[in-house]
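Fold this: Glycerophosphoryl diester phosphodiesterase
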Amino acid sequence: MMGRKLKYTGVAILAFAAAVYLNNTSFLAEHREGKPLLLAHRGIAQRFDETGLKNDTCTAARMLPPKHDYLENTIRSMRAGFDAGADVVEVDVHPTTDGQFAVFHDWTLDCRTDGHGVTREHSMVEMKTLDIGYGYTADGGKSFPFRGKGVGQMPTLDEVLSTFPDKHLLINVKSRDPSEGEKLAAVLNGLPAERRIRIIVYGGDEPIDRLRQLAPDIRTASRASLMGCLTGYIGYGWTGILPDDCKNVMMLVPINYAPWLWGWPDRFLKRMQDANTQVFVIGPYHGGGFSTGIDTAERFAQLPDNYSGGIWTNEIETIANLVK
């Protein structure tokens, strides 16, 4: 009797394992056709030494020897990113004291510009007078190759939206202030529906939660949603049921975690597409924060053959050429 029970138990376990495999193997999934969706982080920007970065590190002061003269978060940089092959360009925003959104990365003005103080505590009129290339140096302050060349180059979000009316944008909210989510929702809700579907917003949990409440059709991402989607899908995605954190969002997938995702790549990507979620693969995660992107030919080669999801990169020209 005991032997028969063990036999039935073994058959049941095998049947369950087979069902899980068939429900999740990508070998039996229809291949997603098309080229990868390329996201240019900060458009085309100056690269910097990423060793030991902290939240308050002045990256302009550790710029690598420049290979071009583009400055991040400028109209010119964004246009160059799209021209190089980007499908999406990422921009950073801060609210201003005169009701605008400034497109600028840093929490303060002191590192990158000739201004001083917290970015959001200034008017857009004032920040239009700043030199956003002022602080860049690749030799410890001996020379500043972009000083004087960035005056008036900090755009508003309205300028970006009007300059690129049919382009896809990823907007990064730099604060944890829920009122910023309200202000941004007011801007985005004023756009036509066909424009809003080309926008994704990510940032702190609090402003993103508020934005979701006020503009529920906008795809979003926050640290909480990213971790919730990733861990939830690894935990029970084999059932085909998606966590709520995986619906109508952006999902960032560290390339070293991708093989652990049920149905990777094609079945997984199809599930996310059906949930109106855009997936971008980023560099490997090792416990100290997400990598910045797929930036080299060696890293690109780690993607599956004929991969058709999203790729997050700081080197759009390199990756776009590899895709071609």
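The radius of gyration is 22 Å. The beta strands are 37-40, 88-95, 101-103, 168-173, 199-203, 219-222, 250-254, 278-282, 310-313.
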